[in-house]
Design a protein that fits this description.
Blueprint: H1 7-22, H2 43-57, H3 63-68, H4 72-84
Helix pairs in contact: 1-2, 1-4
């Protein structure tokens, strides 16, 4: 069962994953940043990110939901919804 996280904690974890694992400049990571256009992630990066978030939340993001994710804020909201289901 996942722990409950605040929106800020989710954002901080996402930021640390993007900086540490994807070498993205921390200053570029803002709620409205587009994962693909602004942060230049590709589809393989997106899958890697989904796996890392699955480890963090102990829950799987459905492919349908993940396809809807475009921005950092979308990721945070999707994780919030996932962990609410506990």
């Amino acid at each position: 069962m996942s722990n409950k996280y605040t929106k800020e904690e989710i954002f901080d974890k996402l930021k640390s994953i993007l900086v540490d694992d994807f070498e993205i400049d921390e200053d570029m990571i803002k709620p409205d940043a587009n994962l693909f256009e602004d942060l230049e992630l590709d589809s393989i990066d997106a899958v890697d990110l989904a796996v890392k978030l699955q480890i963090f939340t102990e829950k799987k993001i459905s492919p349908e939901n993940f396809k809807q994710i475009k921005t950092i804020d979308d990721v945070v909201l999707a994780i919030e919804e996932l962990i609410k289901e506990d």
